[in-house]
Amino acid sequence: AHRDRIHKVGYVSNTQLKTLYTSAVAFVAPYFYEGGGLAILEAMKMGCPVVTSNVGALGEFGRDATHLVKPDDPAAIMGGMERFLIDKVYRQKMTTMALEVTQKMSWLSCARETQKVYAKA
Asked: What string of DSSP letters covers 85-97?
């Protein structure tokens, strides 16, 4: 039904990636394993709401600014996607929260936090 609206893309430039994030209704990343945190943060920083897994630390990346789902539950994933499609108020709230969360993050703060961990060890 909606297959004609799904586009598979290969390599995209940074400019094209920004356009994809800013024009998307949501970034959907139902990862089974951690390791996708940077893509989630990248989407959030561009103001793109995120549907992602409630597995491991993935929920911590976005804090309350992501819609968390079980990665092995297609109905839950679809529900998150539908919510962003249908509920514009929710989508705007999550977009605003995502931007607020990512404004507090930087490579410098990451390095400082990592340094703290090493100092304790």
From this structure: HH-HHHHHHHHHH
